[in-house]
Specification:
about 200 residues; mainly alpha; 2 domains; about 0% strand
Length: about 200
């Protein structure tokens, strides 16, 4: 399936904007619209080959080694290696998210073994436990009723960083993942944030 020109144009615009913001002193005169279109095509091809990779122009730009005002978008964004760097960056983030969730699940299950009630743990607002981590723990404890209590927060957590979907596959059946609608293959909005240890996606 080929992308529409409208999709490529939208991705190209966001890539150019993200690049310009990151390299504020960059001289625009040495580029043409083709460089942004070429970069957008690479981003789309990465997502087409692996639908778990989001169409996120801002994260795509952030994944590239742009270090100075002399950064060349042709070599840093419109070269096939840019797609490889983006793919590796996304996979690295997913691994870190998975580690974060594993730690939260382990903490919750340790508290359960110590005799704490799951409803009490959920109500404690422990800063070390995210809604998504609690949601997973509740399903693992066969308490879908308590999972429902934290589902809105877990959905919000997903909306902030959709890469949680891939990170959760090790702990939760895909059909139980808390989203209002599937966003498989949908262009990312470029506004989501990563959790405490990772910083911003953008």
């Amino acid at each position: 399936m080929l992308p529409t020109q409208e999709t490529l144009d939208r991705l190209a615009y966001r890539i150019e904007r993200a690049f310009t913001l990151r390299c504020s002193n960059w001289y625009r005169g040495c580029s043409t619209h083709r460089v942004w279109s070429a970069a957008a095509t690479i981003l789309w091809e990465v997502q087409f080959e692996d639908p778990t990779i989001p169409l996120d122009p801002e994260l795509f730009v952030a994944s590239q080694p742009l270090t100075s005002s002399f950064a060349d978008p042709w070599s840093s964004l419109a070269h096939p290696v840019a797609g490889h760097r983006y793919r590796q960056s996304v996979r690295r983030i997913i691994r870190r998210l998975r580690t974060e969730l594993k730690r939260e699940i382990r903490r919750t299950e340790d508290l359960l073994r110590q005799g704490r009630a799951l409803s009490t743990i959920i109500g404690s607002q422990d800063a070390r436990l995210s809604p998504l981590g609690l949601y997973i723990a509740a399903h693992r404890a066969d308490r879908p009723d308590l999972a429902g209590r934290v589902r809105p927060g877990a959905i919000e957590q997903h909306n902030c960083c959709p890469l949680y979907r891939s990170a959760c596959l090790a702990f939760l059946p895909a059909e139980l993942y808390p989203t209002e609608a599937s966003n498989r293959g949908v262009e990312a909005k470029g506004t989501y944030k990563l959790p405490r240890e990772i910083g911003s996606c953008n």
